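Researcher: Checking consistency across runs. Here is 2-dehydro-3-deoxygluconokinase again:
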Amino acid sequence: MPTDHRPDLASVPDGSPLVEVVAVGETMVVLCPAPGEPLEHADRVAVSVGGAESNVAGYLARLGHRATWVSRVGDDPFGRAVVRHVAAAGVRVDQVVVDPAAPTGLYVKDPGPEGTAVHYYRAGSAASRMAPETLADPGLAGARVLHLSGITPALSASCRALVEHAATARPLAGSLVSFDVNHRARLWPAEQAAPVLRDLANRCDLVFVGQDEAETLWGTTDPLAVRRLLPDPETVVVKDGAVGATAMSRDAEPVFVPAPRVAVVEPVGAGDAFAAGYLAGLLRDLDPVRRLRLGHLVAAQALTSSGDNAPVPPWAWFERLLAAPDEAWSPLDLTGAPARV
């Protein structure tokens, strides 16, 4: 049987050995019929790629940061499509293992009058075979951030062990461990996920959680109550959709920044974009307010795009809005042309 192998490093857009962010998790092929057309009546589907952690890496790469995606894919056309898609965003993929014994995961969207249902076909996928040794490669050394999500521990026992190892043993010495709760009810019910995700989040340095997730998992919509549930991370960021986000650090007062208004085209991927923007602000040593602003501005790009990975404006556009006085930021409206401040 062929052994595991990795994509050729020559195919990686950025061949530099330096890495700022390591993002770990499964990325799948997405099949979707025409908008509003139920899957059972569709005679063709569009093929795309989606994955929370690789989305974060892609946005960070577009913002000028050196990001590496770590995962496993099958030795199949879907796996090759996934790797090509992630690499095209400027993300390094030399740490992706191609597994000849397991398939690439996929999910299928089924539009309907009550919304879009999602059907996963990921049980036994190549990515579900990730394990603690996934982070053993010395090529990952020196990363400033290791980004994980609550999707990965739901995939398999070995994936849960990987996340526990990353958060507790800290195999990437000196890296800040970032964790997006990202509860997926289709993978595990709230009563099963709640204690596991709380424990994992509490072992990390930076935690992102949606207010709706906090209510589903832990029965609260109060950011301060979430902070009390997660006392150990240096920073907890609670996102409240179109309202705004609150960052709570151990040694500082909570900081709330309202979200700018946008015309939403597709909400999928906005949470990943927000996390990427906030992490970019952290990597650039911005203050807490501007980290949250940058999270909102990158999320706005995702919200106004039909895909999981939206293009981003030049850095000068972000820089101008990050420098806006509070009285100009609060009423900021991005529904039309880029805002003027």
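Researcher: Does this match what you'd expect to see?
Model: One thing to look at in this run: The chain has ten helices and 13 strands.
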